[in-house]
Specification:
The termini are far apart. Helix content is 75%, strand content 0%. Helix 1 packs parallel to helix 8, helix 3 packs antiparallel against helix 4 and helix 10 packs antiparallel against helix 11. It folds into two domains: 163 residues, no CATH class; 58 residues, no CATH class. It has twelve helices and no strands. The protein is mostly helical.
């Protein structure tokens, strides 16, 4: 990764990163194919699908953008919605930035580009466990990126042969997010925070139009989780009150 990194070290970094990334890559393949099919049905060419995956690289925002294209929404509305949905990356970046102190800005920029829900969850767990560094985390980010882009383009090429709602592909992205949530539930506090986020998202979505409920519910849940951890530490540790 740098001039001071030997060939053996580079090989070790790549192997560790690929070994950690392959479960995400396997998950990206069906979801990327699903997105490619849906995007092709919305009128995008394989080239446009590939460019969207490279420039946006955010599955949920891309699915939303394609859905809005299908309903005839304007470019400004699509961009604003995608920007709002992707504001959650501020929260993820803030959480993982503590492990990237002192990193040069050019590497930070490259790292920031590759952060997704899946790579964030995986790298955060690895950083907490130790024996993980930014180079291996960066490898995870961009190996998964390559799989995502390739899968979406292949889905776009084969979209004409696959019905839009076949094989339950509309549920693929939601299913992967649910799996990621389950892996993050490491105690009672996490369950409570998840429930608060879910309830807040549903309530806010019914009151306020648009997709602002995603970020708003995340902030509310994170604030509530912090308050619970400080106010009732025994509950946060998974122990009930006396």
């Amino acid at each position: 990764m740098t001039d001071k990194t030997t060939t053996a070290e580079r090989t070790s970094i790549l192997k560790d990163g690929i070994r950690a990334a392959w479960p995400i890559c396997l998950g990206y393949i069906p979801i990327g194919l699903a997105f490619g099919v849906l995007a092709q049905k919305a009128g995008l060419s394989p080239l446009a699908i590939g460019l969207m995956s490279v420039l946006v690289f955010a599955g949920s925002a891309q699915f939303i953008a394609v859905a809005m294209l299908g309903t005839g929404a304007g470019i400004a509305a699509i961009v604003a919605t995608a920007f709002t949905v992707n504001l959650r990356h501020l929260l993820m970046s803030s959480a993982i930035s503590v492990y990237l102190k002192g990193l040069h800005k050019r590497w930070l920029s490259l790292f920031a580009y590759g952060i997704t829900d899946e790579s964030f969850a995986l790298n955060l767990v690895r950083f907490r466990e130790g024996n993980w560094d930014w180079k291996r985390a960066l490898t995870v980010n961009h190996v998964t990126n390559a799989f995502w882009v390739a899968s979406t383009v292949i889905g776009g090429l084969g979209g004409a042969l696959i019905p839009a709602h076949a094989f339950g592909i509309d549920y693929a992205l939601m299913g992967m997010f649910l799996c990621l949530l389950v892996y993050q539930l490491r105690g009672r506090l996490y369950v409570l925070t998840g429930l608060i986020a879910s309830a807040a998202a549903v309530i806010i979505s019914l009151v306020i139009p648009g997709n602002s409920y995603i970020v708003t519910a995340s902030v509310i849940a994170a604030t509530a989780g912090l308050y619970i951890r400080r106010r009732w530490p025994r509950i946060a540790r998974g122990k009930g009150p006396r």
